[in-house]
Prior knowledge:
Elements: H1 10-13, H2 23-31, E1 35-36, H3 37-40, H4 46-51, E2 57-59, E3 63-64, E4 74-75, H5 85-95, E5 100-105, H6 116-129, E6 134-138, H7 146-153, E7 159-161, H8 168-175, H9 180-191, E8 198-205, H10 211-223, E9 228-233, H11 250-263, E10 267-271, H12 280-285, H13 290-293
Parallel strand pairs: 2-5, 3-4, 5-6, 6-7, 7-8, 8-9, 9-10
Antiparallel strand pairs: 1-2
Amino acid sequence: xxxxxxxxxxxxxxxxxxxxxxxxxxxxxxxxxxxxxxxxxxxxxxxxxxxxxxxxxxxxxxxxxxxxxxxxxxxxxxxxxxxxxxxxxxxxxxxxxxxxxxxxxxxxxxxxxxxxxxxxxxxxxxxxxxxxxxxxxxxxxxxxxxxxxxxxxxxxxxxxxxxxxxxxxxxxxxxxxxxxxxxxxxxxxxxxxxxxxxxxxxxxxxxxxxxxxxxxxxxxxxxxxxxxxxxxxxxxxxxxxxxxxxxxxxxxxxxxxxxxxxxxxxxxxxxxxxxxxxxxxxxxxxxxxxxxxxx
Length: 295
């Protein structure tokens, strides 16, 4: 790999220096034995979000049953689900004064319901703890099982998210046991359910995809009924992970966002530092300039 790819471009490096911020929120989360994807995935926006008192809660522990080449979450044998976790998430969200809460999880192929029940319990706990709360879930593929997808959607989260992450050709290399067609079916099944939530997906770029492949992937996602899209630059968490193939220029993200809107996406956030849960409430509400603010 070129030595230049070991050096972050300035529009990425400037935003990546704030990882140590938000220590007070970190301490609060540790006291409540809660996990955030912000920390486990080494998100470059962690400092900004934690200093603003926001975080994306990660259910079912900090060990995933899958190993993806882009992700820094630990792989191993997870602990059994903690029945008190939904209450603690709701308590923490209420303590932070959150009215919009994003909840994700590790993949739990070891569980009979693949973790769907923990999402449902957490949505219910949040509703009891916070009047008028709005919830966004970002689920693993749940084995592509329609009954599990329906279980989560029927709990009435405002947004149901599942990330495609990358183009079809690279899915096996990047996402391990995931399947491109299965992820599309998750989005399509969720979008087709009565009273469905807004459906959302996220993509990373700079993994080695071509522009034509990215266009096809966005078109495939739009065809499922997905209406919210995030597109961000892949950043290598450690040297053990998949290297970056290319850093896209900010102007390229503007072109990608314009194309996505033409394909029928209702709201799009595209930029080097965009992540699927970053400023999720702004994307959900369609705040003007959301995409630009995430560059």
